[in-house]
């Protein structure tokens, strides 16, 4: 079995596939499952951000002439979200190396508001 810190690093570095691998291989380690949950929160935040942008893009494209440039300018928000998640991933990696747990600002509180998502993530890390 791989060390729990290595599995937690894999969860952050490889996104959803890494989180699934770490969840399966480190299912008995509470430390590993904590960081798997944080990695999944980052992935879900980015997926949500891209989905919202795509819906806004689709709606704005219906506006003649100005809709497409406005929609493309909103992509800056998506880029800022990606940079935010990269910074949080680096923060998570540093915490893994130190052996600490981490809660991400803004991102960790979002799943609490969505019932089925909260239940799914609580199965991974009930102490969070």
Please, could you describe this protein's structure?
- The protein has 128 residues and is mainly α.
- The protein has one domain (4-124).
- The chain contains 6 helices and no strands.
- The longest helix is centred in the middle third of the chain and has 31 residues, at 30-60.
- It is elongated.
- The mean pLDDT is 86.
Give a brief outline of the structure.
The chain is an all-alpha fold. Helices cover 73% and strands 0% of the residues. Helix 1 (4-13) runs antiparallel to helix 5 (75-98) and helix 2 (15-25) runs antiparallel to helix 3 (30-60).
Helix content: over 70%
The total tally of domains equals 1
The beta-strand count equals: 0
Q: What is the CA-based Rg, rounded? A: 17 Å
Task: Pick out its properties.
single chain; 128 residues; mainly alpha; 6 helices; 0% strand; elongated
Write the layout of secondary structure elements.
Blueprint: H1 4-13, H2 15-25, H3 30-60, H4 67-73, H5 75-98, H6 115-124
